[in-house]
Structures are given as structure tokens and as C-alpha cells.
């Protein structure tokens, strides 16, 4: 009875089974992948992987131990000189079994067994690992702390990126204020040119009127509403007085021009003759 027997004998004797696994291992090391039945591929993994681990230590002693299993100098040379440097950083799991379906003749399940580091399709993302994960720990809280720390770092970087454009805006505002300050001396120079003797009197009057208007507008803005009301009332009072003074002037003119009256400032012909 085979109770508890985990090794698959592959329907062969011990010597036949050892010879079969030795030949399959040599072909695997030489070609990096082979196609065989699923049962043989599963039996080959525990036979070949310990030999690859021994090849990490390139000494005569380890070479002789591996040679006792394989009995093939070319396969041992390939394992120690080519395969060993490539899998030096891998802590086990050197082979991969991929199912290929069933064989046409006897309907047996076929599989491909290959070295993991020599697969160009599956091995693309091996080198692109996260640099933050440096050390593996068995503590429950260690992984959580790393997971929480990583998003915090990303958030800080995102906030810094968002804050950078504000600096540019501040710089642009400073540049604009500088441009305004630089333009003021130009305005002063224009006023000086206008006020020179070569310039006409009209320019002076225009500048004075413009300055007066600016002062008036400034005072009007600063004045309170009550003061504005008082000024309006005073203007209304002054307007009727001006209207009343106009008829007096008209009366004086009429008196001067009357025939009977003595015109003031107008000389008669007799006075001209006496002179």
C-alpha cells in the first residue's frame, strides 16, 4: 500500500526514475525550458531546484555534489557559469510550470517547465519593484505603517506641486508693480517738458486744469454726504442772488442811455469843442 507516499514514481523503478529526472534536468539547464507531461514536470521541480540552490556557491565541492546527480559536465558548466549569476538574488522558486492542454495521441496533459529568469514575457516587471519596500517583517503593524506613510508622502508632493504656481503669480504681480513704478518717472518727465519756457502757455493751463480736476475729484470722493448737501444748498442760494443782480445792471444801462439823463463817461460835442 502507498499510504502517505507523496512522491510520484511515474510507473518506473527507482533507478529508471532517477535516470529520467537526471536527463530532464540536464535538458532544462541547457535549453532553459522543455515540454513534457504534467506529471513529469511536477516531479522534476523538487529534483532540479535544490541543485540550482547548490550552484549559488561556486566551489569544487558543490560542483562534485551536483555532478553526482547529473553526470553531465556540459550541464554543470552551464549551471555554474551562466545560470547561477542570473538567479543569485532569487530566494527559491527558480522554475515555472505552464499547462499546454492535452496531447492528441493519448490525451495526456502536456506542460512546459522553464526557468523563471529566462522568460522575457513574464519577467518584464521583475526589475520595476517599489523601492520603498526594503525590508520584510512578520509584524502585523509594519506593513500598515508603510502603507499609510506612502500615501502621506504622495499627498505632500501633490500639495507642493499645487503651491508652486502661486509663487509664479506673485512674481508676475511684482513685475507688473515694477512696470507701473517705472512708468511714473516717464510721466514726471513729460510734465517737466510741458512746463519748460519753450512750451506754450496753453500746455500749462491744460496741466493746471487737469491737476485741478484731479484734486476736485479726490475731494469730492472724500467729502461726506452731509457736506455735499450743504454745498448744494449754498449753490442754490447764490444762484437767485446772481439772478437778482442782473436787473440792476440793466437799469443802470438804461439810465445812461436816456436822452434826459447825463450819460456817465460819454462826452458831448460841446465838451469836445472846449477841449
Give a quick rundown of the structure.
By secondary structure, the chain is mostly helical.
* N-C termini distance: 173 Å
CATH superfamily of the largest domain, by name, is Ribosomal protein L17
**Largest sheet features:** 3 strands, antiparallel
- Work out the radius of gyration: 55 Å
Indicate the CATH class of the largest domain: Alpha Beta
Determine the strand fraction and express it as a percent band.
Answer: 5-15%
How many helices? 8
* Level-2 CATH architecture of the largest domain: Alpha-Beta Complex
Order of helices and strands: HEHHHEEHHHH
The secondary structure category is mainly alpha
CATH topology of the largest domain: 50s Ribosomal Protein L17, Chain: A
Residue share in helices?
A: 55-70%
| Number of structurally distinct domains | 3
Mean pLDDT over the residues: 74
Poorly predicted parts: none
**Order of neighbouring strands in the sheet with most strands:** 1-3-2
The count of β-strands is 3
Shape: rod-shaped
Account of the protein in words:
The protein has 275 residues and is mostly helical. Helices cover 65% and strands 7% of the residues. The chain folds into three domains: 14-118, Ribosomal protein L17 (50s Ribosomal Protein L17, Chain: A), CATH 3.90.1030; 167-222, no CATH class; 225-258. A three-stranded antiparallel sheet has the order 1-3-2. A hairpin with a 6-residue loop joins strand 2 (95-102) and strand 3 (109-115). The radius of gyration is 55 Å and the shape is rod-shaped. The N and C termini lie far apart (173 Å).
SSE diagram, text form:
Layout: H1 14-31, E1 33-37, H2 38-55, H3 60-70, H4 73-86, E2 95-102, E3 109-115, H5 140-195, H6 201-222, H7 225-257, H8 269-274
Antiparallel strand pairs: 1-3, 2-3
Helix pairs in contact: 1-2, 1-4, 3-4
Amino acid at each position: 500500500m502507498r499510504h502517505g507516499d507523496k512522491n510520484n514514481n511515474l510507473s518506473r523503478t527507482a533507478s529508471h526514475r532517477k535516470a529520467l529526472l537526471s536527463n530532464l534536468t540536464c535538458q532544462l539547464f541547457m535549453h532553459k525550458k522543455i515540454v513534457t507531461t504534467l506529471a513529469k514536470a511536477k516531479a522534476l521541480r523538487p529534483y532540479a531546484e535544490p541543485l540550482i540552490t547548490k550552484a549559488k556557491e561556486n566551489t569544487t565541492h558543490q560542483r562534485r555534489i551536483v555532478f553526482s546527480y547529473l553526470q553531465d559536465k556540459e550541464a554543470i558548466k552551464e549551471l555554474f557559469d551562466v545560470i547561477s549569476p542570473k538567479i543569485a538574488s532569487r530566494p527559491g522558486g527558480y522554475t515555472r510550470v505552464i499547462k499546454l492542454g492535452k496531447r492528441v495521441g493519448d490525451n495526456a496533459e502536456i506542460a512546459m517547465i522553464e526557468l523563471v529568469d529566462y522568460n522575457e514575457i513574464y519577467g518584464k516587471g521583475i526589475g520595476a519593484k517599489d523601492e520603498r519596500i526594503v525590508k520584510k517583517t512578520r509584524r502585523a503593524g509594519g506593513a500598515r505603517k508603510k502603507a499609510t506613510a506612502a500615501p502621506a508622502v504622495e499627498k505632500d508632493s501633490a500639495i507642493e506641486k499645487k503651491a508652486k504656481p502661486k509663487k509664479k503669480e506673485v512674481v508676475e504681480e511684482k513685475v507688473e508693480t515694477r512696470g507701473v513704478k517705472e512708468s511714473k518717472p516717464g510721466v514726471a518727465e513729460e510734465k517737466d517738458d510741458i512746463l519748460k519756457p519753450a512750451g506754450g502757455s496753453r500746455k500749462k493751463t491744460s496741466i493746471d486744469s487737469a491737476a485741478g480736476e484731479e484734486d476736485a475729484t479726490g475731494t469730492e470722493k472724500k467729502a461726506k454726504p452731509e457736506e455735499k448737501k450743504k454745498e448744494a444748498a449754498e449753490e442754490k442760494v447764490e444762484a437767485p442772488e446772481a439772478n437778482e443782480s442782473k436787473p440792476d445792471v440793466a437799469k443802470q444801462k438804461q439810465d445812461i442811455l436816456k436822452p434826459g439823463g447825463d450819460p456817465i463817461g460819454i462826452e458831448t460835442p460841446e465838451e469836445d469843442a472846449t477841449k
